[in-house]
Amino acid sequence: MFIVGITGASGILYGIRLLSQLARQGEVCLIVTSKAKLVFAHELGITYRNKHDLKPHLSDVEIKNVNELSNQNLMAPPASGTWPAKAMIVVPATMNTVAAIHAGLSDTLLLRAADVTMKEGRPLILVPREAPFSTLHLKNMMELSQVGVRIIPANPGFYHHPKSVEDVVDFIVAKILDQLGVKHTLVKPWDGTGMKQIYE
Question: Regarding the domain with residue range 2-199, which homologous superfamily does it belong to in the CATH classification?
Fold first, then answer.
């Protein structure tokens, strides 16, 4: 099972779209922070109470496959290394969350799950949505990268010619899925054909 953590950074759609893609293939554990609920309201007009409020974005089957856990529940399964999660993704990740994970803090379920993911040597992916990055932001991400955490900034490419906000979101979600080894059809793999005439 994958763990998806959604925090209070801008870019809530990234988390929702990833959740949808993973929930199509099986059960997913979801942790939503209190600050994320504020961003749900601001960016999407959603008063987030629980996973059922995602119905405009997730199918009934996808919602059924989402196992939502309270961020305050430190007795939940992801708090233990004996619970066999495949990987954890924090998307979007606030720089506060990145700093707390870097410091090894674990006073919420999301932070504890991230700490467990690292100590067990499982894949942890952070998707920060911030600009510009301060020196401290970069230092935290560099040191997390040095211990194996994958950092995928929410910086979309445009070589796939996106025609909507959803296409831009899918570019980043595709990058996450690629790192997880999960098959998808969100973005066609680059084959160079689009640049061929320029170099001839």
Answer: Flavin prenyltransferase-like (3.40.50.1950)
How far is the first Cα of the chain from the last one, in angstroms, to the nearest whole number? Answer: 47
Which pLDDT tens digit goes with each residue over 13-34? 999 999 999 999 999 999 999 9
* Alpha carbon separation from 197 to 83, 184, 189 (Å, rounded): 52, 28, 19
Task: Spell out the SS3 assignment of the chain.
Answer: CEEEEECCCCCHHHHHHHHHHHHCCCCEEEEECHHHHHHHHHHHCCCCCCHHHHCCCCCHHHHHCEEEECCCCCCCHHHCCCCCCCEEEEEEECHHHHHHHHHCCCCCHHHHHHHHHHHCCCCEEEEECCCCCCHHHHHHHHHHHHCCCEECCCCCCCCCCCCCHHHHHHHHHHHHHHHHCCCCCCCCCCCCHHHHHHHC
* Whether 68 contacts 102, CB under 8 Å: no
| Predicted local confidence at residue 194, as pLDDT | 60
Average pLDDT of the residues in 83-101:
97
Compute the half-sphere exposure of residue 174: CA atoms within 13 Å on the CB side of its CA: 17
Tokens describing residue 76: 């939940």
Q: Which two tokens stand for residue 197?
A: 């005439």
CA Rg value for the chain: 17
pTM, 2 dp: 0.93
d(CA 69, CA 132): 32
